[in-house]
Design goal:
This protein is an all-beta fold. It is about 0% helix and about 50% strand. The protein contains no helices and 11 strands. A hairpin with a 6-residue loop joins strand 5 and strand 6.
């Protein structure tokens, strides 16, 4: 299971750090991604990181503001979100992909968390 935490309400320009922890699974073997889904919109790719942390991929909308990292010893992946904007408001999901390289589409991933709400007020 994947469990996200760290969401909440923040003012525009503020920061949040999301965490994705795994139970019953060793995340060090998985490529990890973060997706988000705003009300009335489809789930969209945000960022991904390879199993070893060597490669990262960012959506253009978050490049320079968000940073993904992982601590395999803690079996946890993080998403540091800075300079948040109202349009970042969404439910954020972490996802794990066992084989291949980090993906940018929903179907690339094998396991998903339940999501954590991020709300950015203007």
């Amino acid at each position: 299971h994947l469990v996200e935490s760290g969401g909440g309400l923040v003012q525009a320009g503020g920061s949040l750090r999301l965490s994705c922890a795994a139970s019953g699974r060793t995340l060090s073997r998985y490529n990890m991604g973060w997706f988000r889904q705003a009300p009335g919109k489809e789930r969209e790719f945000v960022v991904a990181i390879s199993w070893d942390g060597a490669s990262t991929y960012y959506a253009n909308s978050v490049k320079g503001r968000f940073t993904i990292s992982r601590d395999n010893a803690k079996n946890t992946v993080y998403l540091q979100m800075n300079s948040l904007k109202p349009e970042d408001t969404a439910v954020y999901y972490c996802a794990a992909r066992f084989l291949g390289s980090p993906g940018t589409i929903h179907d690339d991933y094998d396991y998903w968390g339940q999501g954590t709400q991020v709300t950015v007020s203007s």
